[in-house]
Amino acid sequence: MTARLTLRPISLDDLDAMFNYTSSESVARYVTWEPHTRLDDTKEFVEFILNGYQQGNHLLWGIEYDQKLIGTIDFVAIDDKHKFAEIGYVLSEDFWNKGIPTEAVKKLIDYGFNELKLVRIQARCFEENIGSQKVMEKSGMLFEEILRKSMFVKGNHQNMKMYAITDDNYF
C-alpha cells in the first residue's frame, strides 16, 4: 500500500481491466510485447503470471488505483547471489502524468532494500521513452549508461537507458 495505491496479486478477475491497457498502441509502444488484440492474449499473460505465482518465481503486483487495476509492476529479474534486481512496470495511459508509477516504483525499491535485502535495484527503458526516464529519476535512480543496441524488440535493435539505485544512496 502507498498513499494512493494498492499493490496486489493479479487474478483472472483482472482480465478486462488489463486488456483495456495492454491493447493500447500507446502503452505497447515502449514495451517488449505487441498490443493485445484479443482478450485471449491477455488471458494467456494472466495465466503465465498465475503459474509464476504457483511456482514461487514471480514478484509481480497489480497497481490498483481507486479500486481499479491500472497497471503492473514487478521485479523482472532478481539475482540472489549478487543481491540485485531489475524493475519493470506498465501503466494505463489514462493515468500517465499523475505520479502513479513513481509512487509504485518507490514502494518496490523500499521493499527490495528493506525486505529482500538487495544492494542494487535497476531499471531500463528505451532511449526515447522520456516518461519512464522521469519515473526512474523521481524514484531516486541515477542514470548510468546507454546500452547500445542491447535489446532486439519488434524487429529492431533498441538502445536502452540504464538507471539504478544502490543501498548506500537509498534515502
Can you walk me through this structure?
- This protein has 171 residues and is an alpha+beta fold.
- 31% of the residues lie in helices and 35% in strands.
- It has a single domain, classed as 3-Layer(aba) Sandwich (Aminopeptidase).
- Helix 1 (15-22) crosses helix 3 (39-55).
- It is globular, with a radius of gyration of 15 Å.
- The protein starts with a strand and ends in a 5-residue tail after the last strand.
Quick take:
With 171 residues, this protein is of the alpha+beta class. The protein has helices at 15-22, 25-28, 39-55, 100-114, 130-138, and strands at residues 5-8, 60-65, 68-79, 84-91, 120-126, 142-153, 156-166. The chain has a 7-stranded mixed sheet with strand order 1-2-3-4-5-7-6, with helices on both faces.
Identify the notable features of this structure and list them briefly:
alpha+beta; 31% helix; seven-stranded mixed β-sheet; single chain; Aminopeptidase; 171 residues
